[in-house]
Automatic annotation (TrEMBL):
InterPro entries, A to Z: CheY-like_superfamily (IPR011006), NreC/VraR/RcsB-like_REC (IPR058245), Sig_transdc_resp-reg_C-effctor (IPR016032), Sig_transdc_resp-reg_receiver (IPR001789), Tscrpt_reg_LuxR_C (IPR000792), WalR-like (IPR039420)
GO biological process, one term: regulation of DNA-templated transcription
Domain HTH luxR-type: 150-215
Gene3D superfamilies listed in its UniProt record: 3.40.50.2300
Keywords, alphabetical: DNA-binding, Phosphoprotein, Transcription, Transcription regulation
Species of origin: Paractinoplanes rishiriensis
Domain Response regulatory: 8-124
Molecular function terms from GO: DNA binding
Name of this chain's protein: DNA-binding response regulator
4-aspartylphosphate carried by residues: 59
């Protein structure tokens, strides 16, 4: 009988020190191995195409493409890929968005040394892992919203508009955004106009402030 090898992990975080610390935690486990490291979501996609992993551990706020954006693309590319979010954001909106993109788990960086290995093992068993301290509060809040008819909080912009919003806030030109997203410059301008109208914003500065508040970019 063939003995399965260790779980092959793709790790994406824009802070090298965080990646190093996470790798130290995972390297202590004989059944887990980090095969690639990415500094942003776009690089994570490229690495996953070149050498598909079993499990992707993604930060949420990263340059060029967030972890949530990357997760949507990764699940399209590799439907059986397990995804964990390792984040500093103890945030309800990100939690529900992580569920939307099919995440197997949501781990806080502050508890990585305690929870990350367990979350990896749970993901590979097809079991969800949510950071224990907030599960009760999140479920209670969700049930209260459902009773009030609100349901899961909706996104203000579409997935594509979110991608454009992030890149505009990072200072990319219309031409650069068009090249990064493989769309026309005219389409970029249309998305930007729609974003400004939907969010009630006037210019790039207000848009950048919104992107920081939404966790799309770091201040």
């Amino acid at each position: 009988m063939t003995v399965p090898g260790p779980t092959r992990i793709l790790l994406a975080d824009d802070h090298a020190l965080v990646r190093r610390g996470v790798r130290l935690i995972l390297d202590q486990e004989s059944d887990l191995t980090v095969i690639a490291e990415a500094a942003d979501g776009a690089e994570a996609l490229d690495l996953a195409r070149a050498d598909p992993p079993d499990l992707a551990i993604l930060d949420i706020a990263m340059p060029r493409m967030t972890g949530l954006q990357a997760a949507r693309e990764l699940t399209r590319m590799q439907p059986d890929l397990r995804i964990l979010f390792l984040t500093m954001y103890d945030n309800e909106q990100y939690f529900f968005e992580a569920l939307r993109v099919g995440a197997a788990g949501y781990v806080l960086k502050s508890a990585a040394d305690r929870d990350l290995v367990e979350a990896c093992h749970a993901a590979m068993r097809d079991e969800p892992f949510l950071y224990p301290a907030t599960v009760t509060a999140l479920v209670r809040d969700y049930l209260e919203r459902v009773r009030g008819g609100a349901g899961i909080p909706a996104k203000a912009v579409t997935d594509r508009e979110e991608e454009v919003l992030k890149l505009v806030a990072e200072g990319h030109s219309t031409r650069q955004i068009a090249e990064l997203l493989f769309i026309s410059a005219k389409t970029v301008e249309r998305h930007r106009a729609n974003i400004l109208q939907k969010l009630g914003l006037r210019d790039r500065l207000e848009l950048t402030r919104y992107a920081i508040r939404a966790g799309l970019i770091e201040p």
